[in-house]
Amino acid sequence: MGNDLRVDWGEATVAFDRYLAVERAYSPRTAEAYGRDLEEFRRAYVEREGREPAPAKLTTTDVRQHLAGLFGVNAPSSVARKLSSLRAFFRFLAKTGIIDGNPARAVRGPKRAKPLPRALDVDDTFRLVEAPVAARATDAARAEHLRLRDRALMEVLYGGGLRVSECVGLDVDDLDRGRYGGGTVIQVRRGKGGKDRVVPLGGKADEAVADYLAAREKFRHPKTGACDPRALFLNYRGGRLTARSAQRILERYSVQTGLLGTTPHALRHSVATHLLDGGVDLRSIQELLGHASLASTQIYTKVSMDHLTRVYDAAHPRAKKG
After folding, report:
1. Where in the sequence numbering do the catalytic residues fall?
2. Domain of 140?
3. Are 69 and 150 found together in one domain?
4. pTM score, whole prediction
5. d(C-alpha 253, C-alpha 210), whole Å
C-alpha cells in the first residue's frame, strides 16, 4: 500500500488520539501527553522547514533532527519519552496505511540510567499504614471517619499493590468476599492499558475496609447530603476521591511518621519487594501488579538484593573490612 498523501498532520493526529482513547483505552491525561509531544514535533518542523509536516513524506532524518534539538534542553528521560511518542504515532500511521514505514523506528534514543524504585522496609510500611489509628489520640482535628478511610486507602494500596489511579477508581461492587476460599479479592477494572485483573486483599486490609465501610455514610455533601453510591473511596463531600487527594493523604501521614517523600507508588514498590523477599515467584508478582511484561517485574530482584546487601553489611560480624 502506498503513502496516503491526502491525510494531513491534523487529520493524522486526530485519528491517533481517537485510537489511544478507544482502542488502547488510555486515560485522557496519557493521551494529552502524547498530543503535547506530537505538537512539539510539529512546531519544530514548521520552524525548521517553513511548512506543515506531511505524514507521508516524513523521514528518519526529520525525526533525528528533532531529537538533536532536544538534547541539552531536555533530560535524557524526556527525550526518550518524546521519541517513544513519535514511534507510537508513526507505528499507528503505518498500521492504518497512511505511511509505508515508521521513520522513528531506526532512531536510537539516549542511554539513561534506570533508578531503582524506592521501597520501604516492612516495619516502616506497617508504621505508615497504621498511622491513622496511631494518631487518634493526638490528631483531634481529624474526624474518626476520615482516619478510617485513610487507613483503608493505604492498606488497599499496599495490600493489593495497586496504582493510585486504580485504587481511587474502585467501586464498592469491586470487592468480592467469599468466592475464593473465603478470602476477599478486588476486581481491578481497566487498569493500565485497559486490562482487568483480580488481586487478593489481605486480612489487615480487609478489616480496614470493613471498618471504613461501616462509617462510609458519614461522607456526604454538606449542603445536599448527596453521596456517590458507587465509589469505594469518598472525599469529605461525598464524591469519589481523586488520585491527587490520595497522594495528599499519604503525604500527611508520611510527615507524621518521618517517612518523608513516600508516595502511593512507593507502597506498590514495597509490596512487590516484600513478596519477593518472602519467596513469591516473579510470575505471581507480575500478575498481582498487572505488569504487561515480566521485564517490568524483574527490577524488584535488584531492589531485593540491594536491601539484602545493606542488611548483611550492617549485621554480619565478618562483613566489614579491616
Report:
1. 163, 192, 265, 268, 291, 300
2. 122-315
3. no
4. 0.60
5. 21
